[in-house]
């Protein structure tokens, strides 16, 4: 049986521009929607652009984020195709693991969107469109960030399916970027709802005083 020299393989081709373009797109998306959403919360930027219609503005942002996500995924796949494959990842077991990760990721993302709705998923709380109560059902009973974790699973599954170590590296970058985004988003969102609760409590107190 002929032997194969694995030491001659390059795991990642750092000379490929597509790798850096994909990494930039991964970082750009959450940066974009956080900046735009905070501008909306503080200055009503999008609501003003849409003539005071906050619901319409939120849907427009949702469409923009979704489109940017499609572009990011396209650039990621292009980056993988320009990278070397690793033979040890080209096995049936790895392929089945890849299928499972992609399926799990999509389940987390789709079920999260189903639970939250479009405005709940796409930063409606920054537009003043708040949920009545915290969603605790699936998938939020297994992870507090199903959109981000589901997306990360899909990235990793795609990398394993194509047998690309560069995809695993980009997936690690996805995870880091999303963790940074969550460190900003979670406290800010919690502050929005805390303010709503304080206003409700103040309204109840005022109502009792007027009786």
3D architecture notes:
- It is a single chain.
- The model is unreliable at 1-8 (pLDDT under 50).
- It contains six helices and no strands.
- The radius of gyration is 21 Å and the shape is elongated.
- The chain has helices spanning 17-43, 45-49, 54-81, 92-121, 146-162, 165-210.
- It has one domain (17-201).
- It is an all-alpha fold and 211 residues long.
- It is a multi-pass membrane protein.
- One of its GO terms (cellular component) is mitochondrial membrane.
- One of its GO terms (molecular function) is phosphatidyl-N-methylethanolamine N-methyltransferase activity.
- One of its GO terms (biological process) is methylation.
- It is found in: Endoplasmic reticulum membrane; Mitochondrion membrane.
Summarize the topology.
Blueprint: H1 17-43, H2 45-49, H3 54-81, H4 92-121, H5 146-162, H6 165-210
Question: What does this entry show, briefly?
Answer:
The chain has 211 residues and is mostly helical.
Instruction: Determine the strand fraction and express it as a percent band.
Output: under 5%
Total count of strands: 0
Specify the overall morphology. Answer: elongated
Return the string of H and E elements: HHHHHH
The portion of residues assigned to helices is: over 70%
Number of helices: 6
Main β-sheet: number of strands, strand sense, barrel status? none
Mean pLDDT level: 91
The figure for the number of domains is 1
Low-confidence parts:
1-8
Q: Indicate the structural class.
A: mainly alpha
Q: Over all CA atoms, what is the radius of gyration?
A: 21 Å
* Euclidean distance between termini CA atoms: 92 Å
Organism: Microdochium bolleyi
GO biological process, one term: methylation
Function: Catalyzes the second two steps of the methylation pathway of phosphatidylcholine biosynthesis, the SAM-dependent methylation of phosphatidylmonomethylethanolamine (PMME) to phosphatidyldimethylethanolamine (PDME) and of PDME to phosphatidylcholine (PC).
GO molecular function: phosphatidyl-N-methylethanolamine N-methyltransferase activity
């Amino acid at each position: 049986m002929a032997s194969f020299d694995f030491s001659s393989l390059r795991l990642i081709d750092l000379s490929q521009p597509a790798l850096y373009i994909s990494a930039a797109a991964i970082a750009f998306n959450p940066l974009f929607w956080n900046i735009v959403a905070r501008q909306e919360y503080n200055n009503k930027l999008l609501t003003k652009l849409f003539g005071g219609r906050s619901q319409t503005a939120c849907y427009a942002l949702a469409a923009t984020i979704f489109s940017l996500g499609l572009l990011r995924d396209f650039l990621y796949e292009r980056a993988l195709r320009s990278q070397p494959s690793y033979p040890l990842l080209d096995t049936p077991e790895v392929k089945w693991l890849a299928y499972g990760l992609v399926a799990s990721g999509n389940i987390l993302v789709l079920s999260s969107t189903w639970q939250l709705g479009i405005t709940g998923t796409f930063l409606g709380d920054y537009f003043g469109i708040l949920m009545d109560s915290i969603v605790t059902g699936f998938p939020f009973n297994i992870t507090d960030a199903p959109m981000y974790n589901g997306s990360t699973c899909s990235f990793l599954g795609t990398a394993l399916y194509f047998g690309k170590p560069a995809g695993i590296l980009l997936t690690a970058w996805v995870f880091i970027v999303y963790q940074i985004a969550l460190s900003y988003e979670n406290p800010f969102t919690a502050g929005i709802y805390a303010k709503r609760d304080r206003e409700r409590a103040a309204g109840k107190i005022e109502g009792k005083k007027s009786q």
